[in-house]
Amino acid sequence: MRLVECVPNFSEGRDRQKIESIVNAIKESGEVRVLDVDPGEATNRTVVTFVGEPEAVVEAALAGMRKAAEVIDMRLHHGAHPRMGATDVCPLIPVSDITLEECADLARDLAKRASEELGIPCYCYEAAAFTPERRNLAVCREGEYEALPEKMNHEGKGPDFGDRPFDEAAARTGCTAVGARDFLIAVNFNLNTTSTRRANAIAFDVREKGRPKREGGRLTGKPLKDENGNTIMIPGTLKGTKAIGWYIDEYGIAQVSMNITDIRATPLHKAFDEVSRAAAARGLRVTGTEIVGLVPKSAILDAGRHYLRMQQRSLGIPEKEIVKIAVKSMGLDDLKPFVAEEKIIEDMLRKPADGLVDLTARGFADETASESPAPGGGSISAYMGALAAALGTMVANLSAHKPGWDDRWEEFSDYAVKGRLCMERLLSLVDEDTDAFNRIMAVFAMPKNTPEEKAARSEALQRATVNAIEVPLRTMQAAYDTFDILEYMAANGNPASVSDAGVGALAARAAVLGASLNVRINAEGLKDKELAARYIRQAEEIVAKAVEKETHILGIVNKVISQ
Hints:
The chain is 52% helix and 14% strand.
C-alpha cells in the first residue's frame, strides 16, 4: 500500500471549536486516518497528523487548508511559535511504497492547487523547494506573517505559487509553506544507569552535531572558537540525528533521546547499534528501545533483516517473524509490550481481512464447495501456485539453517526471499481471479433496452473478458517462475526435504495447466479472434515449458531419493 503522512500546522491552538472544524474537514474529505491532534495554547498552534494513500492525503490537506482559511484570520493571530499563515506549514512524508521525490512532486501539486483553488499563496520548502535556499523553512518564513506585504510581489522573495500584491485575501490567510521531508523517528534508548551526565555524553558521541572541541582535549576545558567566533564542534558518528541525555522518573533510568531526521542515512537499527557501541565504550549498556509515536513498517523490517543477517539466518521468513526479531534485538518491549497495531503505521491502518486468502484452510475449501461459482478453478490454480512457491521457500529456509551449511546461508536466503515474492504474487492473484469473474457477472446486470445500452454492454463485456484472460495468464507466468526455485532446491537444497521440492513442482504444473483452462474458456468469448488466438498461443507455450520443467525436477528428486 502506498502511504503518505501529512503533518499540517494550523495557527490556532486555543479555540477548540475552530480546531475541531478543521480536523473534521480533514476526516470527512475521504480515505485518510487522523492519528494525532496536538493543540498548544501558548504557541496558539495545532499540529495534526494524518495518513493515507497519496491522492487521498492531498485532498484531505486541501480540505484542512480550506477550513483553516475560513475560520482563522491571521490579522488577529498572536502566538509564541513562528508563523506566516492560517495553515502555516504542510509537509508530506513518505511512509511506504513511495519515494521522497514523489512526495515532493505531490507537494508542488498541492501548493499549486491551494493557490489556484483556495487563493492561498504557497512557498515550497525542503525536498519540494525550487531553489536550494528555500529548502530551509526559516528562509521561506523569514519575517513571518508581518513581512508578507514586503515579500509578496517582490522578485526572489514572493511565494512560489499565488504570488501577487498583498491583498485582503492574503492578509486573512497569510502564506503556507508546503514541503516534503523524510519520516522522522523519535526514539529513546534505555540505559542501565541513572546518570544524566553519562547519557548526555553518549548522545554527544553519536549525534550529528557532536560536542564542542575544548582546550587541551579535556571535557571541562574552554570551548574553542574559529576565526568567526563560532564554537568548533567535533561531529558525532550518526548523520541526520539529534540527541540529548535525560533521566525519566517514570522508569527510574536515564535515556539517550534521539530524533532520526534522515532515516535513509541512519536507519533505526544503525542508531541502536551505534548507541550500544558508544554506551559500551563508557561501561554502560543499552537495555532496550522506546519508540515515541509511530514508525513505518519498513524501519522495523529493515532492522529485523539486519539482525537476521548478523545471525546468518534466512531473510525469506514471514513478516511477523521479521518484526519479532527486530523487537527482541532492539528491546522494543523493554518498558512495555510492543503492539504493532499501535506503533506501526501500516498495521494501524490495516483494514479487516475480507479476501479469500484471509480465510482459514477449511473456510477456503468450504467457500469453494458452496453453490457460489466463485472461487473457481482460476483462484484454485493461483492458490496451488502459491503453495508451490511456499514449498520451495520452506526448503530454502531449511537449507539456510542446516547444520554444517553455515557458509551457504546467504545463497539459500536469497532463494527464500524470491520464493516469498512469488508466493505473495500468487496469493494476490487468488482474489484477482475471483474479482475478474465478478466483473463479467456485473456486465450481465447492465441494461440492454436501447441500441446504445446494448453497445455499451457489449463493449464492457469485451473489456471484462480480456481481463478474465489476462489474470490467469499472469497466474501461469507467476506459477512457472516458481520452477527456478524448486529446481535449485531439488538439486542443491537439503536432501532430507527433496520430496517437498518435488511436491512443489507437481503443484506448480497443476497451477499452470489449471490457469490455462481459464485462458482458453474465456478466450472463446472474445469477438477479436486474432487476439484470442494470440492469448491461447501464449498459454500453450507456458504449458509446454511447465510440463518439461516438472519432468526435469521430478527426475532430480527421484535420483536424490534413490541415493
